[in-house]
């Protein structure tokens, strides 16, 4: 049997759509909360200054595992939780969210990573929570500090309403980004 371009592209497109819309078996709240707790500790340990930045933030959206994959067509999906700065050290979940994206372009591979969005203004947090599907870059300006930067002293970061960190990367995916990722509230 000889494979032609059209069936291969159709199969890859179906894979990207499946990845962007999420797995059939979603995680329950307890599993998401446990993964978020581990991811927060990993973030605070691996990225200098994030613990201090968390004290200034109004909330943190933590996506403990986002899986991205693709070959020309790609997709990603993950589930996480929004934690509010209520004096508890971000221990209580306010809401659960999913993130998904589909992409077309020069990319190949599969990767798992974690990311966290720090909401540094009440207005940015409120806008995120009111949105019916929120996209970084389209709905708000988000900055991604470079590796090795001292988060607490960077004036550019301090002036942004939302700061994002990608950490805990595993695997290899060439040509990928968070661009086009859409966050949606989910019920768990």
Automatic annotation (TrEMBL):
Domain Ysc84 actin-binding: 101-183
UniProt key word Signal: yes
Keyword set includes Signal: yes
Pfam families the UniProt entry points to: Ysc84 (PF04366)
UniProt keyword terms in alphabetical order: Signal
PROSITE patterns (alphabetical): TAT
Highest taxon in the source lineage: Bacteria
Name of the protein in its database record: Twin-arginine translocation pathway signal
Species annotation: Thermohalobaculum xanthum
């Amino acid at each position: 049997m000889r494979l032609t371009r059209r069936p291969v592209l159709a199969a890859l497109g179906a894979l990207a759509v499946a990845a962007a819309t999420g797995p059939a078996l979603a995680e329950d709240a307890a599993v998401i909360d446990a993964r978020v707790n581990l991811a927060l500790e990993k973030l605070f340990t691996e990225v200098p200054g994030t613990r201090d930045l968390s004290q200034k933030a109004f909330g943190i959206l933590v996506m403990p595992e986002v899986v991205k994959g693709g070959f020309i067509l790609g997709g990603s999906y993950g589930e996480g939780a929004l934690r509010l700065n209520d004096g508890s050290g971000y221990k209580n979940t306010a809401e659960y969210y999913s993130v998904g994206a589909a992409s077309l372009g020069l990319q190949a591979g599969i990767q798992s990573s974690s990311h966290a969005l720090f909401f540094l203004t009440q207005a940015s947090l409120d806008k995120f929570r009111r949105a019916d599907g929120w996209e970084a870059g389209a709905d708000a300006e988000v900055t991604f500090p470079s590796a090795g930067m001292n988060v607490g002293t960077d004036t550019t970061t301090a002036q942004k309403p939302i700061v994002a960190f990608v950490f805990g990367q595993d695997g290899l995916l060439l040509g990928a980004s968070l661009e086009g990722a859409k966050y949606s509230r989910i019920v768990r």
